[in-house]
Amino acid sequence: xxxxxxxxxxxxxxxxxxxxxxxxxxxxxxxxxxxxxxxxxxxxxxxxxxxxxxxxxxxxxxxxxxxxxxxxxxxxxxxxxxxxxxxxxxxxxxxxxxxxxxxxxxxxxxxxxxxxxxxxxxxxxxxxxxxxxxxxxxxxxxxxxxxxxxxxxxxxxxxxxxxxxxxxxxxxxxxxxxxxxxxxxxxxxxxxxxxxxxxxxxxxxxxxxxxxxxxxxxxxxxxxxxxxxxxxxxxxxxxxxxxxxxxxxxxxxxxxxxxxxxxxxxxxxxxxxxxxxxxxxxxxxxxxxxxxxxxxxxxxxxxxxxxxxxxx
Length: 312
Hints:
The protein is α+β, with helices and mostly antiparallel strands. It has helices spanning 28-44, 58-61, 83-91, 100-107, 109-118, 135-142, 165-175, 217-221, 236-252, 287-294, 299-308, and strands at 16-22, 48-54, 69-72, 126-128, 146-150, 160-162, 182-186, 190-198, 201-202, 206-209, 227-229, 258-266, 271-277.
């Protein structure tokens, strides 16, 4: 008997698993890397897994395939925003991660902030930028510096830091190319943390440190200068408070299975919620596997536990 394949339990309970990756969003390349890593981990664990590169409609991608469940690792729009989840609900196929509503809400950083604000959780001040006419009002409300973001992109795509009016205008123009709401957010001076959530529990907190102006796409996926601190350097009480906040922030949005919450602690010690990812990266630079490792879960065990969320 192959004991490696069964060290987490019986892989046959999952049936045939489609690892859906790729997609047509801006994060396609990252998703393909995440998907390849997840697929290999499932195969090592004895799971009957197939890899599906979704290049257009997820309905077409599943048309001639018989599967019992889906491991969704499509980052960004089309995979993380409720679209794929809705397709799988209609087809009656169980899947990993959050449902339609939580996925749609969490993908939209503006609506996420409104939900958090509504329950009294702190998130940085922001201003919606719908046209050049909003620039001066934004400056009056937020001052400088600010960070400008497209509301429905991940991996820091389309984001820019602005220190003056010209930079703010250029940042708005850049973010406007992503076909969604654009907003400027007050810059938070402080330390950046991320908290992975697995089955409603927070994994060890990671502190991020980068010489870049912020934790951008290059710092996330290519740079060797980004530092990841886990243990994060907070005392036990602070780390527990941060974990509790992250779990609450995810529960407010109805998030299930797994996720990753990004938080700053500003110079006054105030926790400031930034965003939440419901299909986090699983590449060699990704944060959830780092946190899991600190908690004693290797990559294969993490993938297995995420897949188990599709059984609930």
